Here is the input.
Amino acid sequence: MNEIILCKLGEVVLKGLNRRSFEMKLMSNIRRRTARFGKFRIYSKQSTIYVEPAEETCDLSGAYAACKQVFGIIAIARAVPCPKEKEAILATAKTYLGEALTAARSFKVESKRADKSFPMSSIQLSQWVGGELHEAYPHLKVDVHHPELTVYVEVREDAAYVHAPAEPAAGGLPIGMGGRAVSLLSGGIDSPVASYMMAKRGVQLEMIHFASPPYTSEQAREKVLQLARELVPWCGRLTVHVVPFAEIQEEIRRSCPEDHFTLIMRRFMMRLADALAHELGCGALVTGECLGQVASQTMAALAVSEDAATLPVLRPLIGMDKEEIVRIARHIGTFDTSILPYEDCCTVFTPRHPKTKPHVEEVREMEQALDVAGLVQRAMENRDIVKIK
Here is the structure.
């Protein structure tokens, strides 16, 4: 019995004249994600993308799990195609879902007739298949409102397809259709979640991380690279630009007031991310900032840090509370790594009483004591580039 994967489209179907370009990008993303599981024929028809094994050696389970994490797919199901004849549909349901039908206590059949030349309506087909299955499995109770098992029948252009309920998939838009951005990746809980949320909107990401050896350890660096690895199943291939930050922090401590240290440090992070974005042709920066979470994330402080960038700063977590962020972190698999007790550069030289209501002009004046351009240039020249596949 030759199973295939049916990928149901979400927002993509609303894209009007641009819809085909979204579908092509989505199929390209699926093709790349499933390549390691074998050779698949991937094509789109009637608001569904079909992932069909081209060889017997294909790992359909592996491809199915990979497709669930591809943005642009709202639901996914393993199905079996059969001829568009009611007897063939019934036989396929008995064979493919026989074990589930035996184990269930109640059921219903739900049909969709995309091919209007099929001689039975959707309701007629559901009633006929349901009646025959009820006779074959007399222990089953028909329950059209809350069935334990729903048998789905889809009569489409090429064939009929029988499957159990579809599972929710990643949703969102295909990566690559929302432009490119540089995401500031720390070792905390928030920034990986922010990266995931922007990737869900179709944004292709480049990652930048700020390391401060000897104040931060090799374990802290490896923790961030592990977070990037955990994001790859969602975000696709990633490149992490590890930028040395200790010289900048030492110069700020030497030349600037302590209560403004974190703010000026954040401004340098924005400058470095902005420089990288321009170098790579990206259109925005992404941060994990959340309004009011810490002193550097008050409304005034965010305005001061954003002033150092020339590109838009996207903050997908801005109105979320920590519980919501943690829930997403657990869902995408980054939470356990994020809470590992390794320091990052943001905890180095933390002021005892950080400024919460700063003024842009005041901070700009303080930065005149620093060789801003030289510090940024040296940091960018000495960065490490790590590719994560």
User: Anything to note?
Assistant: DSSP finds 13 helices and 15 strands in the chain.
